[in-house]
Amino acid sequence: FLRKPAPLKVLTAMTPGISVLIPERANREMLQRCLESLGPACAAHNEPVEIVVVVTGAESDGYRQLMKEFPARWIFRSKPLWFVDAVRVGLAAAKYEWIYLLNTDVRVHPGALREAAKWRSPTVFAVSSQIFFEDSSKRREETGLTELRNGDGIIEILDIPPADDCRVRPHAYAGGGSSLFQRRLVTGFIDQTRSYAPFYWEDVEWGILAWRKGFEVLFCPQSIVWHSHRSTNSKFFTAAEIDRIFARNRLRCQLRTGLLRDSMRTLFGTIARLDGKSFREMLSPPFVAEALGSRFRVYLDPPFSW
Q: How far apart (Å, rounded) are the C-alpha atoms in residues 272 and 262?
């Protein structure tokens, strides 16, 4: 994946302040716990913090009590929106240059925003928080410290337990549920990654795009959050369907980004063996058109490197 990164196009200055952006759909109890955790985190951060909650698939009536308890910029869309489109709505409304994307099923440590914000830089795209599961008895599948690997010709993503809780380090990509992003960059990347709907792998491609353009993605272990794994998606999809979408989008990411260029036969062979629904989705005209456009941009930017 290695080659010299493209020339940087960086911010000339950074103004203080963070916008915390929370996409919400049918998860009010989790949203309340999330907002409760944000109070101490905002108080501990010595800059302005705004909270933007984008509620989709619902009207404001069901959220009146939360709106009274938690001052925020509340945005409602009666039409249900999945992750990328809900985030796009929030990005358009947010006022600060750095956006902390936060899922409703995540609670933040009081120091989470402060610690992540220390690592903002014009040449940094994103800073990931360290993730722990709410259920500490579960195997730790999510940590926030990510890696991309070659899994016999198909890309794999892994979360790695950090060897220490002191060292901030570069890694592959920042998860879209508990990370701080440079707003200008993530806004542009989102417009290129809508074909991952309803969820998964869009944030992987954001990281790839950032590294190709010469920006860093960092992991900050001192910024801590707790996650209730898949609690929102499981309201609308079976476990089997979630796994199917994950597997489909894994192949979409590899096809779109041009990673593992020497493994195209393996990639197309894997696509050919997909279930009928996934195979048809991979060959849909809108996706094929977007994939071709993405692959064209690959030739304009260097290969992924970190």
A: 18
| Sequence-distant (≥ 6) Cβ neighbours of residue 64 within 8 angstroms | none
Distance between CA 197 and CA 296 in Å, rounded? 21
Predicted pLDDT at 305: 52
Q: Residue 136 and residue 120: Cα distance in Å, rounded?
A: 30
Note the pLDDT of residue 1: 46
pLDDT along the chain (306 residues), means of 10: 49 79 94 97 96 96 95 95 94 97 97 98 97 86 95 95 94 97 95 89 96 95 90 82 96 93 92 96 92 83 57
d(CA 117, CA 180): 8
Q: What is the pLDDT of residue 191?
A: 85
User: Is the bond leading into 110 cis (omega within 30 degrees of zero)?
Assistant: no
Kindly list the distances between the CA atom of residue 149 and the CA atoms of 168, 172, 238, in Å, as whole numbers in the listed order: 21, 10, 28
- Would strands 18-24 and 98-102 be described as parallel, antiparallel, or unpaired? parallel
User: How far is residue 178's CA from residue 130's CA, in Å, rounded to a whole number?
Assistant: 8
Decide: 223 and 115 in contact? Cβ < 8 Å. Answer: yes
Residue 247 vs residues 140, 243, 270, 301: alpha-carbon distances, Å: 20, 6, 10, 26
**Type of residue found at 75:** I
Task: Determine the pLDDT at residue 3.
Answer: 43
22: phi > 0 → left, psi -120 to 50 → alpha, else beta; which?
beta
Q: Residue 190: enclosing H or E segment and its boundaries?
A: helix 183-192
Side chain identity at residue 59, one-letter code: E
| The pLDDT of residue 140 | 85
- Helix 239-257 vs helix 264-272: crossing angle, to nearest 10: 150
